[in-house]
Amino acid sequence: MCSNLRKIVSLNKEAFMKILLLYYSYGGNTHRAARHIQKILGCDVQEILTVTPYSGDYNSVVSQGQREVEEGYEPPVRPFDKDLNHYDTVILGTPVWWYTFAPAVKTVLSAADWNGKTVYPFATNGGWIGHAFRDMKKACAGADVKQGLNIRFDGDQMQTSIAEIDRWTAEIKEE
To answer: Out of the domains of life, which is the source (predicted)?
Structure first.
């Protein structure tokens, strides 16, 4: 009887496992990638938005981003519509800022409880991923962080093939 109860509990847990696609996008590239992934998985989505949006020309934002990364700054973010505690699996997307994840993502990673969650990171960049995935794994202490997806862009032109994104996303569906 106890064995049957364990099976029922296990099946019920699997039936209610939920996936959240959580991402930050400054210039729109990460947003585009996130929406493609969401379309395939049909999962819930939560965009990370800073309370004060970055403004100014691209070079000014790059300089500000460098300062924020170097200082470990965590900009205030807007409240979420979704509760991270209701999700077992999080697909986590970020642009690469100075070889790591964006400061807005740092704000969320440091505030959330990652214990017991499964995290699939993806990062958009102009050619070099840096140590973004290693940093994300470290920041998601207690989570099972899976192989990340590096999505390369040249300006606003995606260099990573849609087929590669689809393969990575299919692996998430299979697990």
So the answer is: Bacteria
